[in-house]
Amino acid sequence: MNDPERQLADMKPAAPSEDFEKRMATLFEDVEPRPAIWRRGIAAWQAAAACVLCGFGGFGASNFFQEPPLVQPPEVRTDHDIRPVNKPAVRSAFDLTDPTPFNAAASPAIQVIIETADWDDPS
Amino acid sequence: MAKDGRFVDEVRGLYETQKQALFSYALSITGERRAAEDAIHVAFCSVLQRSRPSGELRPYLFKCVRNAAIDMRRIERRDDPPASLFNGKHGVDPVTRLQADEALAVLTEDERECVVLKLYSGFTFNEIAEMRHVSINTAASWYRRGIERMRALHKEEITNE
Fold first, then answer.
1. Which residues from chain B sit within 8 angstroms of residue A27, using beta carbons?
2. Is the dihedral of CA A26, A29, A30, A35 positive or negative?
């Protein structure tokens, strides 16, 4: 040790054990307020991209959980067919000489409602 | 434990860069590897429980490690010879390592601490003086006396041979 200052400075000091490194790593992980991944700054475009992806993903997933569509009932078509049903009675209403009773001609026409439906023919 | 993430990151960053120096410093006080590791662990646990101190963090960490190492030495008083302060694995001549350990062993505690802090932690005399609450001249004289004592030991060995 001619020059102890230089010789000591050139020597590599002892390193702590691996077990100690693990202990210290655990200590720092325990005191972290949040996991490291959450403490990183997230760019606005990354947040927006994540939002769009989640939207598409949610829309796609929702299709798997929808109830099957109900069978639509057949359309009911209503026709209004107004026509005289008792031509003699109508005629008598305008012909005072007709012997047909007047009350029979009181209703010159009736409204006939025919409802038809496009039900599937069971046959 | 500390809730301030930035303070935790700062302490962790300093630990990563200074762990070798911190370990050498703690080992120079305890003389035992396990006790030195425990001292650093205890010191960092304590630091992370508090809020960030004003001023520089690096001298503060070394001061905390020193206090913990002194406590550890008091608790685990051993009669074994102190562990080597130097790495025995990577190409260091065992004779040189032994000589260096013997040379450091003859120093007083203050001199040894000062030499280790100056050579392996890169502290200035001014920083050492602030850490130890002494004047800069005292810190410088600890170092100078330590180096002279080691030199004298070497001359004495040569004379005996």
1. 41, 44-45, 48
2. negative
Interface size, chain A vs chain B, as Cβ–Cβ contacts under 8 Å:
98
ipTM of predicted complex:
0.81
d(CA B150, CA B105): 9
Rounded to whole angstroms, the Cα distance separating B148 from B150 reads 5
For B92, the closest of A1, A12, A17 (CB atoms) is A12
Per-block mean pLDDT, blocks of 10 residues, chain A (123 long): 77 87 90 66 84 91 74 76 63 64 53 55 52
Of the residues B154, B155, B156, B157, the best mutation for testing chain A's interface (the one with the most A CB atoms within 10 Å of its CB) is B154
Structure tokens at A24: 């210290």
For the entire predicted model, the pTM comes to 0.64
H/E stretch holding A89: helix A87-94
| B chain contacts of residue A28, beta-carbon cutoff 8 Å | 8, 11-12, 15
- DSSP-derived 3-state class of residue A115: strand
Q: Contacts of residue B161 in chain A, CB cutoff 8 Å?
A: none
Task: Work out whether the CA dihedral A80, A82, A83, A85 comes out positive or negative.
Answer: positive
